[in-house]
């Protein structure tokens, strides 16, 4: 009897729309290769747990979930997906895990199973769009999203980031290939093109081109669509701000994570830009295009961050950014020599999380539709539970 039943467990808690996109891309991949998606582990031949490395809550929940499968595994195969460098060590002694498939090498699926369609053949249009979590879908129901993967990897070296550990090279798709897919997307009715992955400005450096050449190619076509850029490193956004201004009409939104409004902390993070310059750039853009949406990430409880710096991050994020996701700093051993000399204690971290959750609740009570615009700590189900408990 053919083994073709797959149970997919999403343990990313929709931290972001692109993670959600990736989960449904994997689902589409199985469906396209004639596998049946079942809704219980009991009926499955293959169990795939998709998770994310950054949040300790997610790591704990995923770990517990995997252990809970022990009695149900028997002859089933269990695969764990996504960026796991930090905790692969804790999982590698679990004997019933069959293999790991990292985010940066999803083609490992093709090698493992040798199926007809590669994961690279799955287009955004083949994915269940309505299932993908969009933090801004509540305020932006008119856009039809198309996720376009322009490159993987990043040239920067932030001290809190494991992406560099997971994927240390940049791998880009050619401009002609991307314009062709863009044309397909727009002509299929998609009007918001989300450019992925880690760092837009790293695009093209491996193939003798760059992001602004891609922007030139994308913005000089006459098709009616807009762009959402994930992500713009502030130093690069400042260096090439003329390009952003030139194409501002085409840019609907972008995420420019400042990570901290303290230059002292930024230096420890190995991120070098002037906070005032970032703020002035945002102000300038808003003068030119008041409706521009600029999202943000803040790493909170970074080693040595004072409570005043933490509060200032909230204050300035709310003031200048459309929405900010606050991500708790994760201790990673290999960054120790840079940044972990003054790790905050657990009580201090809990205190800061409490403040953030209270703020989320405040927005939630004020206006359900708008709360997500300003402060977000975790996303998805877990957030709601935590917020309501505070
Ligand atoms: S810019 Fe982003 S992806 Fe690149 S090293 Fe920094 S945090 Fe990581």
Short description:
The protein is α/β, with parallel strands linked by helices and 390 residues long. The protein is built from 16 helices and 14 strands.
Distinctive features:
single chain, alpha/beta, Rossmann fold, Transcription Regulator spoIIAA, 3 domains, binds iron/sulfur cluster
Structure notes:
The chain is α/β, with parallel strands linked by helices. It folds into three domains: 5-121, Rossmann fold (3-Layer(aba) Sandwich); 134-256, Transcription Regulator spoIIAA, CATH 3.30.750; 259-267 and 290-390, Transcription Regulator spoIIAA (2-Layer Sandwich). 38% of the residues lie in helices and 16% in strands. It has 16 helices and 14 strands. The strands form three sheets. A seven-stranded parallel sheet has the order 6-9-10-11-12-13-14. A five-stranded parallel sheet has the order 2-1-3-4-5, with helices on one face. Strands 7-8 form a two-stranded antiparallel sheet. Strand 3 (46-50), helix 2 (56-68) and strand 4 form a beta-alpha-beta unit. The longest helix has 21 residues, at 346-366. The radius of gyration is 21 Å and the shape is globular. The mean pLDDT is 84. It binds iron/sulfur cluster. Iron/sulfur cluster binds at residues 154, 156-158, 161, 163-164, 198-199, 233.
